[in-house]
Write a sequence for this structure.
């Protein structure tokens, strides 16, 4: 099974780096599971900005000759589509906590969400499939709280562990 852990879709959401460090400490059989850790928007991450030209998470499937995020989405789209599961890690500036976001509501995705047992599950419908997770066979975004919050990191890792166990 190919699983992509995606962080920094928004460059100012730094929590993914801490979550990935914790996931990499787990005793996971890397021969059994093809795990890929990717920093989606490297340039925005370096600048500590949400994006360079436009929100990457609204830029899919992208454009070959577009602005920075459109070209990035164009390059990432086949990678995302090649995975069996994409875990997109975000933080939030709102007061919402422990929220899973999905773009496809089907039996497999619903079972994945149930295995995580989040406080909230949000199905986001877009007129076109412009979000990163909408490109995935199974795409789940974690928004469990604010950046640099140890409780947010801990709960996100726990949710991911539950999902991987499922």
């Amino acid at each position: 099974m190919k699983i992509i852990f995606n962080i920094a879709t928004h460059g100012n959401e730094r929590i993914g780096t801490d979550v990935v460090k914790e996931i990499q400490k787990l005793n996971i059989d890397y021969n059994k599971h093809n795990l890929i850790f990717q920093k989606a928007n490297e340039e925005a991450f370096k600048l500590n900005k949400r994006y360079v030209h436009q929100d990457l998470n609204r830029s899919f499937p992208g454009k070959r000759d577009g602005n920075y995020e459109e070209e990035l989405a164009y390059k990432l789209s086949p990678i995302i589509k090649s995975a069996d599961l994409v875990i997109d890690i975000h933080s939030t500036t709102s007061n919402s906590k422990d929220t899973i976001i999905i773009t496809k509501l089907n039996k497999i995705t619903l079972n994945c969400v149930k295995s995580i047992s989040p406080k909230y599950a949000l199905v986001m419908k877009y007129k076109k499939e412009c979000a990163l997770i909408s490109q995935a066979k199974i795409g789940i975004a974690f928004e469990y709280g604010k950046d640099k919050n140890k409780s947010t990191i801990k709960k996100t890792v726990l949710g991911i562990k539950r999902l991987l166990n499922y």
Q: What stands out?
A: The first helix runs from residue 15 to 24.
